[in-house]
């Protein structure tokens, strides 16, 4: 019989350390830092496999029940590596005529007999290694997040990371004379996306701390509220305010918009699905929006963000032209794409006078991934996200454990926020953000399948 989950604590600790480390070296968006990330995940995975082969570790209930997302993730990895496999040129012409044409033009006449789907072998190999690391990190999360204590520790690790990023980002911004906050990231938009994911988890933990009992009167409600203020829960609320400040200071239009939209949407879903929707939860959600917008924003620049959104026009932004060119690129590689990671090499053939700089990304994760991996790739990735979001929805409706309900709320909000932001940016191309997003997907399944005696699981 496999031993209990305690045997994996030596794997779980470095797993969480990696989670905190990932955003520090420029979001791990440099060759050396993402190589460290990939090696780190690989060693953790090998350590677990070694323990499993020796009978020390078991897969756990979450991994066993999350087989739909594992199936999609495995198919995605197989597909990405398949893009590197040389195919007979006749078969390639059937699968991707445009790719076959470019391979033929790049070689001597009649010299091409075998060629891969990808038009950039190095870029696809690099992206395939990253994808493998992300999927392994997701699988490890499904294995290690097997009880409520493990889940709580993971949430606190992300809150600590978000708080550290918030303090550094706010301090750097204020010291720089009001420069947009970007923390340890290069780009303020990617920084804001990371902060929103941390905020989502913090809000989920805060919701989990609310009492499930309904106050019989407003007097009891205010009494409970006063008691809540003098508990450590108020400290968590202050940490959330601390994280909102640099989010506003980042002046990221979609970062701030995705935060409030996802908070509102997840709040509505949570209240609608909750069998025990309390007055305290409603008041908390309203206060989160009101306090963060009107009080924090009044001092730290929400008005600037609003003005920035209002001043954005088709003339001041050329991302719409880039999106149009990326769509043209996808039309030439509709089913299988031009190869994951090939966008910087292939896109210049489609860009036109509407682009005023060299784009290495489409500033739209959906279009970029669709152009690089086609309908097959975007379908598999979309299935992973939709299935995970569905698991979080089910947890909101079925689970009674407040911790599991809070984590399912965090997963819903974080997934919604990044999906909204990804429509105008390339957050999934930033290793730290992609890795954190994998944890949110793992949270969704853990919130549904973590065993708890109160639920009879």
Kindly describe this structure.
The chain has 457 residues and is mainly alpha-helical. The chain has one domain. The chain has 19 helices and 2 strands. The chain has helices at residues 9-21, 31-53, 60-65, 67-82, 89-95, 97-106, 121-144, 148-175, 188-208, 218-229, 232-249, 253-273, 279-300, 302-311, 319-332, 343-346, 365-398, 402-421, 431-449; strands at 87-88, 114-115. The chain has a two-stranded antiparallel ribbon. It is globular and about 70 Å long.
Provide a quick synopsis of the model:
The protein is an all-alpha fold and 457 residues long. It is 70% helix and 1% strand.
Tally of helical runs: 19
Overall mean confidence score, pLDDT = 86
Instruction: Categorize the overall geometry.
Output: globular
Which spans of ≥5 residues are poorly predicted at pLDDT below 50? 1-5, 453-457
Helix content: over 70%
The strand order across the widest sheet is 1-2
How are the secondary structure elements laid out?
Layout: H1 9-21, H2 31-53, H3 60-65, H4 67-82, E1 87-88, H5 89-95, H6 97-106, E2 114-115, H7 121-144, H8 148-175, H9 188-208, H10 218-229, H11 232-249, H12 253-273, H13 279-300, H14 302-311, H15 319-332, H16 343-346, H17 365-398, H18 402-421, H19 431-449
Antiparallel strand pairs: 1-2
Helix pairs in contact: 1-2, 1-8, 2-7, 4-7, 4-17, 5-6, 7-19, 8-9, 8-11, 9-11, 9-12, 9-18, 9-19, 11-13, 12-13, 12-18, 15-17, 17-18, 17-19, 18-19
């Amino acid at each position: 019989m496999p031993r209990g989950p305690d045997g994996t604590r030596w794997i779980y600790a470095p797993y969480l350390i990696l989670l905190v480390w990932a955003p520090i070296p420029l979001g791990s968006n440099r060759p050396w830092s993402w190589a460290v990330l990939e090696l780190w995940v690989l060693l953790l995975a090998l350590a677990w496999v070694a323990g499993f082969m020796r009978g020390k570790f078991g897969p756990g209930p979450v991994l066993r029940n999350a087989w739909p997302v594992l199936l999609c993730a495995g198919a995605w990895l197989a597909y990405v590596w398949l893009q590197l496999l040389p195919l007979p040129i006749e078969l390639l012409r059937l699968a991707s005529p445009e790719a076959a044409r470019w391979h033929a033009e790049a070689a001597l006449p009649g010299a091409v007999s075998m060629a891969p789907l990808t038009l950039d072998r190095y870029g696809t190999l690099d992206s395939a290694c990253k994808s493998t690391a992300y999927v392994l990190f997701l699988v490890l999360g499904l294995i290690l997040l097997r009880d409520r204590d493990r889940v709580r520790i993971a949430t606190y690790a992300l809150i600590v990371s978000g708080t550290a990023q918030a303090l550094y980002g706010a301090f750097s911004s204020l010291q720089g004379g009001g420069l947009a906050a970007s923390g340890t990231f290069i780009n303020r938009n990617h920084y804001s996306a990371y902060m929103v994911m941390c905020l989502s988890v913090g809000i989920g933990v805060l919701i989990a701390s609310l009492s499930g009992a309904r106050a019989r009167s407003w007097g009891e409600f205010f009494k409970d509220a006063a008691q809540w203020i003098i508990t450590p829960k108020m400290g968590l609320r202050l940490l959330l305010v601390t994280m909102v400040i640099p989010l506003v200071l980042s002046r990221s239009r979609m970062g701030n918009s995705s935060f409030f939209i996802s908070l509102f949407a997840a709040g509505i879903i949570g209240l609608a699905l909750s069998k025990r929707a309390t007055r305290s939860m409603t008041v908390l959600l309203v206060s989160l929006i009101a306090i963060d917008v009107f009080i924090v924003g009044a001092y730290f620049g929400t008005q600037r963000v609003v003005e920035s959104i209002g001043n954005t026009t088709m003339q001041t932004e050329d991302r719409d032209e880039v999106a149009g060119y990326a769509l043209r690129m996808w039309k030439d590689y509709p089913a299988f794409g031009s190869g994951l990671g090939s966008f910087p090499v292939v896109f210049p053939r489609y860009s036109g006078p509407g682009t005023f700089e060299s784009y290495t990304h489409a500033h739209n994760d959906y279009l970029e991934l669709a152009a690089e991996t086609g309908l097959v790739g975007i379908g598999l990735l979309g299935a992973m996200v939709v299935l995970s979001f569905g698991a979080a929805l089910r947890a909101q409706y079925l689970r009674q454990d407040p911790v599991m309900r809070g984590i399912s709320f965090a997963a819903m909000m974080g997934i919604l926020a990044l999906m909204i932001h990804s429509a105008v940016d390339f957050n999934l191309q930033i290793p730290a953000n992609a890795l954190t997003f994998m944890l949110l997907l793992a949270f969704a399944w853990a919130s549904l399948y973590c065993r708890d005696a109160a639920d009879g699981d």
